[in-house]
Design brief:
This protein is mainly beta. The chain is built from one helix and eight strands, in the order E-H-E-E-E-E-E-E-E. The structure holds zinc ion.
């Protein structure tokens, strides 16, 4: 069953993790819209096996947030990608490292029925989903 949330402040990954712990979510799909600032997004460079981070301080419209919640090391693990619109309506996007909610984010979390766990994959250098 899906639930709609309005998040008013704080760091977004931490806020989603708190909801996952409180609601005992083990696997879910996440969708969101709203606004963010002080954002760090990343692009995974496969040849170097590491994320290249990009910091954006300005306020941007969160035109699309999508991701999931799984379990890693017995704790909720939030994996989220975002598309963000700047003042001139150009859009940037990527793997979300961190962001401050401003002024709010509207989020839908829909629990899934299967068990989904993440494990670190040495070959890829990433936390990979096993669902
Ligand atoms: Zn990602």
């Amino acid at each position: 069953m899906a639930k709609l949330y309005k998040l008013d402040s704080g760091e977004i990954i931490e806020s989603i993790t708190k909801i996952a712990k409180k609601e005992r979510i083990k696997a879910a799909s996440i969708l969101g819209i709203g606004g963010l600032r002080d954002v760090t997004i990343a692009y995974y460079n496969h040849s170097q096996r590491k994320y290249e981070e990009n910091k954006l301080e300005e306020f941007m419209e969160l035109t699309s947030l999508s991701g999931n919640i799984s379990i890693k090391d017995r704790e909720p693990f939030v994996h989220v990608h975002v598309n963000l619109a700047k003042k001139d309506n150009t859009v940037v996007g990527g793997h979300l490292i961190r962001a401050e909610i401003f002024p709010f984010v509207e989020l839908v979390i829909e629990k899934t029925t299967n068990k989904a766990e993440r494990f670190f994959d040495e070959n890829l250098g990433l936390n990979v989903l096993k669902a």
